[in-house]
Design goal:
The protein has 112 residues and is mainly beta. 21% of the residues are buried. The chain has one helix and six strands; from the N terminus they run ββββββα. The longest helix is centred in the C-terminal third of the chain and has 7 residues. The termini are far apart. Strands 3-4-5-6 form a four-stranded antiparallel β-sheet, with helices on one face. The protein has a two-stranded antiparallel sheet with strand order 1-2. The chain is 6% helix and 26% strand.
Length: 112
């Protein structure tokens, strides 16, 4: 039996890092703030909200991706876990800040 690794959980939230209100994405699970790109360490698999760490995830790097546009590398400030996340694009529902994504591409991508 195949295990589903993605759970759609597209709800809005208030960013724990910058305090801005983040609207639902509309087509997938929103997992980071489009304004500051910070996230929370709350998922084991995308959208499941099953991780008990709850630490803030700092965006430490980004890289272009042919399918996803950009992928952001987050590091948990509590436990140090590293997690890649697709950037959010387009639509009227708060796309990620492109200039901030581009500035993160200058940082080294190190996934250990």
């Amino acid at each position: 039996m195949e295990t589903k690794l993605f759970t759609k959980n597209d709800s809005g939230f208030v960013c724990a890092h910058c305090g801005k209100t983040v609207e639902p994405l509309g087509y997938s699970s929103r997992n980071h703030c489009p304004f500051c790109l910070w996230s929370l360490h709350v998922d084991v698999n995308p959208g499941d909200r099953a991780n008990t760490c709850g630490g803030q995830m700092e965006p430490i790097a980004a890289k272009p991706d042919a399918k996803a546009g950009f992928v952001i590398l987050h590091r948990c400030t509590r436990c140090g876990a590293l997690r890649p996340n697709k950037a959010a694009y387009g639509g009227e529902n708060q796309p990620d800040r492109t200039k901030l994504l581009i500035s993160l591409t200058a940082k080294p991508w190190v996934e250990k």
